[in-house]
Batch of 2 targets.
Target 1
Amino acid sequence: MHAIVKEKQDNVGYEFPFEGEKHLATAVILPYREDTWREKAKPALDEYFEVVKAISQYEKVLLIADPAIDYHILTRFQLKNVTFFRHKTDDSWARDTLPVFLRNKDGYLLGVDYGFNSWGGDYNGLYFPYDNDNNLGKELLLDLSISRFADKDFILEGGSIHTDGEGTLLTTECCLLSKGRNPKLNRKQIEEHLKKTLNQDKVIFLPFGIYEDETSGHIDNICCFLEPGAVLLAYCDDQEDPQYLMSRKDYEVLSQETDSKGRKLKIIKMPLPKPLYLTEEESQGIVEDKNAIERKAGRRLAASYVNCYIGETYVLLPQFGVEEDKIAFDILAEFYRGKKTIIPIRSREILLGGGNIHCITKQIPFSDLYEIESTEDSECKK
Amino acid sequence: MHAIVKEKQDNVGYEFPFEGEKHLATAVILPYREDTWREKAKPALDEYFEVVKAISQYEKVLLIADPAIDYHILTRFQLKNVTFFRHKTDDSWARDTLPVFLRNKDGYLLGVDYGFNSWGGDYNGLYFPYDNDNNLGKELLLDLSISRFADKDFILEGGSIHTDGEGTLLTTECCLLSKGRNPKLNRKQIEEHLKKTLNQDKVIFLPFGIYEDETSGHIDNICCFLEPGAVLLAYCDDQEDPQYLMSRKDYEVLSQETDSKGRKLKIIKMPLPKPLYLTEEESQGIVEDKNAIERKAGRRLAASYVNCYIGETYVLLPQFGVEEDKIAFDILAEFYRGKKTIIPIRSREILLGGGNIHCITKQIPFSDLYEIESTEDSECKK
């Protein structure tokens, strides 16, 4: 009712927890833009719904919807554990547009709110304008009464970093050193900036992401931590595929690196699905305009099982309707051996929009200082 | 919109700042009960208005009003810097019913929310029921997204303690050891409880408060810190007055004590106004019922200039329309010598309800992490 703005000038004492630890909640933003999501986003909303429903079995989901999204679309999402927020949004990538959440020993949370320029701004951004998405972090922090540590001059999407929760940050050179991000900073300066703003001890740069990934190659599509000391790397055995050398180079870097604790990393190879392409039918359902990049039939899709979302006791795993789906499932099931339930979810429609399950989710680390209020129906109706 | 409940299990690292330091805001609760405030609280509201207006020149005022208070009464209070809150209240003593606000080095605030039993519960409480007032702290903390440290099993009103902000707590035996508060705890246990919950190093117990004070003798009517190392003590030179010996005993204790830093205290004597009594006319304006103590004509009023409210650059000083008013003003002006502006405010009507300016105000220490939102008119109308 009388929310209070909190701006923090420093991040001293705040840690960046591993995604696979307990969450307070997961934020998801609903899609609606017709120049990106075919058929008025209806098929995509079906997959977003499956993601939200699955997460809501385990924890609260904060569901952000643009005022343009009709109330009747939201009614379907009125599940136990789902709280609605109405904010102007440009698109639906919670991973990239929402703050990176840190937590201190006292249990207070802090949202590191970096600048967002639609994955490259004037250089190679994907939609314009992106003001609403750039402001969304501030709005959500206000809603949640979580302190904000603003760093808007530095461009960073949440999907371009992964942490093990013990001070090791994973990222990619292709994205972080791209001209579309922070061209005035060199690699060393970017590394120092990441360490400082996220309180990390070590940054590991992989050279490449996934081939044709429109994010300039986010880490979250190519490699993630399964637990401290162990990473999952998207791998390709087909030497004819451009991805082959990219993944091999990444493997070489990882196999020579140590983490913040001096440990060698255990590398679990995750096969990629066979190459997937945007179909004619899918492309025709998208309303082309000048505000977003074109999505033509035949375009290769940056599909990857590494773009999974890891909770304390569950993993949401992308599925593409191909035979590699089962292999991916088995690899994670084998790794977690009952410690986390692997939940396969079809996500081709999310992929058509340019990302996957990890890209549309953002974890807020658990703290018993906070409790999310339930939604009143009136919030949906706004 | 989606406030978050914050409950903290400990108060480690939180300090209790001196009232005379910079405030984030001051909370005030409006009066309305007709069995306490004569003529439907109209004359009292005039004085509350003057207090709110004066504070709002310097800082935000959080104005809490029971839903029973008509919107048209609130419109008068729609000043710049005033934010409204609608909550069920039993009466209007922000000092006693609202939490004690602590602050940590990071700038986070914490509300210590003690139990409230209307100054004595079944033993010698003043009005019944008092559930709304006992719940008010929790409600306000929710509104402000300030963490709550609940200690509801311990009965304590904010007016029964004063701190110098450096670890010295002032209180009175007559109140803190009263059977109406925490009869199962002995003096040592109460002292330890205060130290622990408010992070204080030393507790100084004065034996007495103000004669006939219906709060069992709150410290804030008899003695307060003017700054660390200096206290203001309500004093009486009339040996026929029961207050004479009470104040003298308190003086003796203070003059032998040292504060948490080992300093002797500088004691500034503040004369009391001549004895004041409830008039027949005043008494007749009160609607007598069984829910609150009787207020009969001839009753001696516990008037004291020590019940002033100290901000960073101002002091609100009670005035009773007697010649001692000017002396009181001069004593504070002389002490603060331009560092704080002394603002005299007539407060006989507040006194008739059983307290004074300090009793109706509660400071929230300043922190640049927090910013109070402005009131929307709709809040008044609720």
Target 2
Amino acid sequence: MPKNNKKAGKNGNNVSVENEMDKTIISFIDYNDKKLEEKVIDNIGDCSKFKRKGTVSWININGLENRKEIEKIGKNFNIHDLVIEDVFDTSQRPKLDEFDSYIFILFKMLTYNNKKKKIEIEQVSMIVGEGYIITFQERKGDVFGDVRKHLENEKSKIRTQGADYLAYTLIDAVVNHYFIVLENVGEEIDKIEDRLILNPNSRILKTIHKLKKEMILVLKSVWPLREVIGNLRISSSPCINKNTLIYYRDIYEHVLQFIDAVEIYRDMISGQLDIYLSSVNNRMNDIMKFLTIIATIFIPPTFIAGIYGMNFRYMPEYHWRFGYPLVLGVMALIAVVMLIYFKKKKWL
Amino acid sequence: MPKNNKKAGKNGNNVSVENEMDKTIISFIDYNDKKLEEKVIDNIGDCSKFKRKGTVSWININGLENRKEIEKIGKNFNIHDLVIEDVFDTSQRPKLDEFDSYIFILFKMLTYNNKKKKIEIEQVSMIVGEGYIITFQERKGDVFGDVRKHLENEKSKIRTQGADYLAYTLIDAVVNHYFIVLENVGEEIDKIEDRLILNPNSRILKTIHKLKKEMILVLKSVWPLREVIGNLRISSSPCINKNTLIYYRDIYEHVLQFIDAVEIYRDMISGQLDIYLSSVNNRMNDIMKFLTIIATIFIPPTFIAGIYGMNFRYMPEYHWRFGYPLVLGVMALIAVVMLIYFKKKKWL
Amino acid sequence: MPKNNKKAGKNGNNVSVENEMDKTIISFIDYNDKKLEEKVIDNIGDCSKFKRKGTVSWININGLENRKEIEKIGKNFNIHDLVIEDVFDTSQRPKLDEFDSYIFILFKMLTYNNKKKKIEIEQVSMIVGEGYIITFQERKGDVFGDVRKHLENEKSKIRTQGADYLAYTLIDAVVNHYFIVLENVGEEIDKIEDRLILNPNSRILKTIHKLKKEMILVLKSVWPLREVIGNLRISSSPCINKNTLIYYRDIYEHVLQFIDAVEIYRDMISGQLDIYLSSVNNRMNDIMKFLTIIATIFIPPTFIAGIYGMNFRYMPEYHWRFGYPLVLGVMALIAVVMLIYFKKKKWL
Amino acid sequence: MPKNNKKAGKNGNNVSVENEMDKTIISFIDYNDKKLEEKVIDNIGDCSKFKRKGTVSWININGLENRKEIEKIGKNFNIHDLVIEDVFDTSQRPKLDEFDSYIFILFKMLTYNNKKKKIEIEQVSMIVGEGYIITFQERKGDVFGDVRKHLENEKSKIRTQGADYLAYTLIDAVVNHYFIVLENVGEEIDKIEDRLILNPNSRILKTIHKLKKEMILVLKSVWPLREVIGNLRISSSPCINKNTLIYYRDIYEHVLQFIDAVEIYRDMISGQLDIYLSSVNNRMNDIMKFLTIIATIFIPPTFIAGIYGMNFRYMPEYHWRFGYPLVLGVMALIAVVMLIYFKKKKWL
Amino acid sequence: MPKNNKKAGKNGNNVSVENEMDKTIISFIDYNDKKLEEKVIDNIGDCSKFKRKGTVSWININGLENRKEIEKIGKNFNIHDLVIEDVFDTSQRPKLDEFDSYIFILFKMLTYNNKKKKIEIEQVSMIVGEGYIITFQERKGDVFGDVRKHLENEKSKIRTQGADYLAYTLIDAVVNHYFIVLENVGEEIDKIEDRLILNPNSRILKTIHKLKKEMILVLKSVWPLREVIGNLRISSSPCINKNTLIYYRDIYEHVLQFIDAVEIYRDMISGQLDIYLSSVNNRMNDIMKFLTIIATIFIPPTFIAGIYGMNFRYMPEYHWRFGYPLVLGVMALIAVVMLIYFKKKKWL
């Protein structure tokens, strides 16, 4: 069935996919505790010869442009058609599908784009079989770089474990990266905090709303992962060794912790919105108070000046010797009385 | 029992049903992997002769006006009276009823009316038996058109599968259409986003409220579908082949994804409402600030002018040589001091 | 235990019970598929003689004043004391109590009082035994009228079914009436919608708040019914035939649908409140803008007029030939400049 | 472990405990269907001799000052240390602990202090064993007075039942008293309703906030009781007769009903807060509108008067015969035009 | 896997860790009912010799700087690597991990920093094995001081119980301390209450927002503890004696009670925010009303004064004998009429 028209959800996410590469890159790592082979391959025909007992093979596919080749891999490894379709539909929710001979895990990678000052969401899918892992990324990312380094280290624990442990390290790398992304958001929030006090303006409002929107998107992207890892942690699939389950439990707790942190950030952003609104309001009130004071202090004296600007013939004050200073005095008196009144009312 | 008086719920949905056709159209498709027969029938008497082993029959009924004929179909296929009543009561929630020899699925179709710029909700019911499907639509729609084309293609997968797979493709077509409808809403939201910055007016407010209301209606229409498909995906009905269940699981995830997207849109619309309100507020504040500045700058000089408009006989300033320019200078000074004060207070 | 002091909950509901009748009316219908006997009885002693095999007896009690007689019925049919107490305590939540030989169902009837323009909530209790039903209503209502007519029709399905089916038709009549009540609310909402655009005033605010309160009361009255019917639909009580369960499932869906509709109405009412508030605000802003424009346009010219009202001896402009028109021209110029400025700022 | 420092929760409740008595009063009632003994005892040594087969003993302890004596009772009846500690820690949540030979029930008593116009929350604990009940109250209360009267009546049902039924009547008395307290709140809400229309001031605001806070405290105090009674109603403890369970089910429904009523009140109070805020706002708007009208009507005429107060030599109007009345006419005209404009705009 | 980069969550918590000590201090207590040995040890090599049957050993580690030594302890007691990693990752959520030979409990300690007037959150982890407990604290705290004193008392109950009871007393000490911290918050809230009435200013607003944020952090820190203790209370681990479970049930109720209290505080803080906002608003309204009254009272008389400042030749009033007092009288009359109008409208 056509799924191309499911773009709405993705547009909703507002995640631009500009820097997508032109070509799908397939990299291949095959290792056991004694040796490690690594290469970039063009043609999946090469792939099958690596499939042998006793090693773990990790095929990483960057970019989903080369649909044909990817479908070939699917057939090579006997993957269900719907799974391959899910790989291409990049607007999926995180999910876990357990099949007889492999597990399909789909989740989101978050990266913080420093130039655009925003969080980018990328879909990562992973097929975990006995002795092999296939990962699909929308774009070339460097989140798995650390795992590769660990793999190259002959003494690292990964080298002695199976594909299920490699899957754990990969998911763990992604989840750890979530916290780094969140740290960037935390810094933006701190900046806003400072600017809120110094100079609340409508640009801050936009930044706050942008952050709020991003937090919603992040939460929606990560929330279902909770269930995915929650199920993985108690999985009885033959692809996952029982000793590895405790590591998935560990990731599970990190996901919960991340969700907690996102919710704390959301609360903080809401709080900042409240502070912004009340500080704008306060400022407006200050301006209004100033107007009130100026206006009410000058209104009565201006009225008096108006009276003595009248041209009646019979106005005895006009002829008084000290009429003018007297009137000025009365005016000053009224102004002073008003100021005292304001002071007493704590309006000043 | 009479259900005609259950219109309230439907009015609540505010979905107009003007373009309803005058006549119920019954179309009929009968196929297996080798041949396909398709025709529009008037009389359900014709129908029974298509019922034979080895093919899948799909009876599609557009329009519910011809109640008698539809009830005849119900009896023909041995459908429970309550099910037929549910077909006619177009204000139902999505639901799944499993009977011994068939499954009754009721759900909502969303279409975006481009002229009226609004989402229309139509009820679709489906009876899935062994070897046959009956679908009921309120109005003539073209959502099933793609499925028909697929059917006509001899090599398509549907031709080799049973009625349960046809049911999947039909539901999938409807759910995929949800995302297209959502895309239209997404475009409206984008338009509002632009207009919010350029010129926030009360027309935007109405559009935002309209969208908000529509999102509520959409959510209410689709939310129970989550449970319906959720149950279908683990159904043990004899009408559904176990190999087809994985496809229903696929739809289930699309429904979840759709609900997520709707909720993201709702959050975005709420955010826009907040932006609208604060931008209207900002504008008002700008106007008030301007008034304040003009008023407070002119009030003291006006008062001074008032003083020197008084007619006291003994006002020595009147006779000063440079009284007039002096007073003008004082006035200018006061205005400048005030402007500086405003600047310092960041009110300007 | 005394329950007379549990009126608080009822007052909370704010439902007046003025038109309560002075006398309890006990009506009695006894029927099977062949004959139907109907009469109004004074004394419950008459009642027992109708208890015979092969017919369904429906005792309907309107008004709870005659406590003694009702308690006698309770003993006659061997009803638990607490059930009878529940019948009299008209502030109960809907509930289902299954006993060995009967089922006790308590729910709320909604009626729309057209004169007072408000929804009235009345408690209805129902005891369903094998071969008999006893219904208790607070006041004389006509919701069961339709059921009575159906009963009198010899060919109606009810005549061939047991007491459990009669119970279904009675509950269904009440639930169907919910939708009629909701339709009245829908009309009120539509009226408000129109008035909100034409003339938002504080009377609308009160109507909106009244509707909001009513929707809360309706929801609280009907919400527990969801669970009641939900349990009834899977009941294993001997009083309910398994073939009847599907009808209760039908009511269950109507209750869900009703709750959905009420929630949509609540959302719509909230939306109207928002629209009201922002339209009041808009209006206020329009007034303030008008003040600002008038004031700021006239303040500078008035100041200039003040200057040339000063009485300094040496003011050369006084003696200019075209001093007066020049000053008028300057004033006009300032006003025009300001208007252009306002226009540019889109404040006009 | 020390629990003295758990006062924070209690302070949070803001419940003053001033009128606590100086001395713990222990009253003792021992009864069966034939006789009843009642006395106030000083020393718990007396207590044991009442422990005999065939009667129900109710020890009621008013005031928790005499810790030693109460601990002695605990030992006498073989009560767990933690239970006795819970009795003294008056900031507990309602809870149910089932032990082998007794049940410990802890809940809150609400009383409405008419002088202080506020709800007071008191902790009541109850130990229900076979043949005996021990109740602990913080202060001397009269809620159990009714139960005592019932006990003294030889024909009352309590006299023929066991300790579990007495426990039911005591809890029922407390729960019934909840509704009386709520009635007082209802009266306060009605008073506010009236005053909101006549004269909204900030004192009402405080009353509304006080009620809101009280409703939160009440809800928090009663909410866990739902679970307590919910568990009690399906208890399999030997201390509770199966025939009594139906009475606990009855209380359970009252608790649900009470919680519903409290939530309705909370919604009503929130609604009143909204009405208050919008009526304050309306009033302010009325004042501002009045200012606007006065100001804008007088600003242009005042400006005209200013113009004709200028002292230019060449102002031909000064010498016109009807200059003065003409100008007055123009002023009046402007004012009238403005009034018509306001009227048309519905600002008046 | 590296967890160092999981600081984001911690920054999110905004808990400063300045006063962290330079050195990890390991203290050691070994006791049974007859003797107690206590010392501070440098080297974990010493540790193993205390491991013997018949005593309970409590190793308390203050400060996590000495990672190597702590890892050595882990190996010594055969603790899983992930557990040791969790000990160092101080941004964990409270959690319970049951292993075959020990239980790992991780929770948060709250302390109120009196100088900075804020709540500090510290992570405490605890390994409970048979006959030994290891506790890890981020900083040197004195919350366990009471427990130590109890231990030193030969007659205290702890001395006769196992490690599981010691674990209970330690957790209980922490949970009891929660209430003390809350008491400090309660005092701050009381202070705000007073200041809100006397002088609402923006500093109060900041304090309220700070408290709000703190309550969120506290809730997030303690909320998962509910589940942790909830599971502990029904644990079937061999490390926990069945008789001790009732004590964990006791803590469980304290945690629920604490969460209730925090939520009440949150509601109170929200209420205060509302009061603050409406009191600021009220004040502003008072100022605006004052402006309105002054302005509207003086506007008409000022206009009249303007009229009689005009220089028309033919203005008969100028020559009236009592023109001046008459005009003054008219002005006074207008002012009085206005004041009466305001009074009647209750604007004064």
